[in-house]
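for the writeup, i need someone to sanity check this before i put it in the appendix. the sequnce is what the collaborator sent (i think, or maybe the updated version? ugh). structure was predicted straight from it, no edits. if anything looks off just tell me and ill rerun, i have time this weekend
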Amino acid sequence: MDNELKISAFALSVTGDGQNLDNVYVNGRYMTAGTEPRTSINKVSHVDFQVYGVCDGQAEVAEDQDQAASPAMVVMQRLQRLQSVLAEEGKIEKDRIWQFMVDTNDKMVEYRNSFESDEVGSTFAALFLHGNRGLAVHLGDSRIYVIRGGRMLQITEDHLESSDLYKMGIISQQQAEIHKRASHLTAYFGMDDLYDVEDDVFSKYFVFYPGDTFIICTDGITDAISNEAMERIVRSLKDGARDTLAARILQEVEDRSQDDRTILVLEVEDAPGEAPVRGASTIPRTENYKHSPQPQEKEEVLRATEEEPSRPVKRRKDPEMPPVEETYDGEDDYEDDEEESVMDRILGNPKMLAAVLGGALIIVLILVVILTLAKRGDKPDSGSTPPPSQSSSQAVDSDATDSSAPEQDSSDESTAMSSPEDSGESSTESSQAPSDSSDSTPSDSVTEYTVQSGDSFSAIINRHYNVNYDEKLMKAVAEYNNIEDMNKLQLGQIIKLPPREQLNLE
């Protein structure tokens, strides 16, 4: 299929309290200063190079000042000039995009200094599309999503303090979303040194197809709705028009957000290059878009993966399939994709995967047999063997004394470093330690726990009481131990864990 790129776009922006500090860029068009409380842009573009984006500015402009000098307008005007340059070159040029961001940031710093206020700046999220290749660029907490086959994926990561804490394993993803509003931005137009976040600004190049949908929105949307709730709306309106989807999401957050709310929905109606295999859908994966922190000699162009033909089952996990082979007629302005990794080839080939798992199982069985024979060789003569009850008692005492600390370390570490999807399973396994000790400890006794490396207060409470983030219980235990800040634990600190009946849970 050698057709030109055709994208239908619909943007909708609603003013919150005060001036609308948001703005939206729809392939050359953006909102003018002093727009109405509710503004929409509907546009269909048939050109090979297209740019879309949003920004969320800070610092209102007084009525007697030039509205065109507001942070959001500065970004929009410079983005329009950048698109003209890139369209003439006929390719997505990362160096030019980065220079645009550096120059825009310098202008914003100058603007901030003239205001003599630190509350001046703007977030930014944009898609640069050429042919059937794309590049996502962002600063701050404005987001970009891709929708394919009813599945929605966030392809940007918020530049927020709470997101950094989640990446370091200090808090869960749920906690990061809860603290999102109170977190400070770690990257935005107007920061002192933009070069500090250069590695976190660009996604990888990716391939898109006809039927794909992109959503770009400001934090006035995402602060008031979870990704799961937004995806449910997407699934319910799978065949709905782009304006219907945008209006439905805005309606969902209307009563929960007083901030400016801006959303841009893009539908890829046609694109050059080879289409996906007929009868099969492609699945977007996070790693197809995330920028690698390691420097690379070549720009990677990650390809979407192909799903197995659908079967009449109620629900199944998305399969990991080998990349779809792409064709790109004419001179290719992008570097070729790197070879598939060994792991991708193994996961994409059921026979190879079965062979690897079978070999691993055989190795494990051999090790078990060797260890069993070694233990039998180390057993003393039957005449010196103590009675079974005494031997069992000694073994239990020895295990409880010698191995409890290492097991606790392992449990704590796995809990702290587990992903949000695995946290439920990890907390269930870890919570078995307190329940096992209940045979020898009265139910009304107080358990003392020594803080280990990697521990968090919530993880300790979850394991001991077999709960999943009970804020009342955490506060009650903190009050019982006279702990003022639950986020500041010290190695070796003793935490007393009484039964629930002894805690004030009101």
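The longest helix spans residues 350-378. Residues 292-340, 381-442 have pLDDT under 50 and may be disordered.
thx in advance!!
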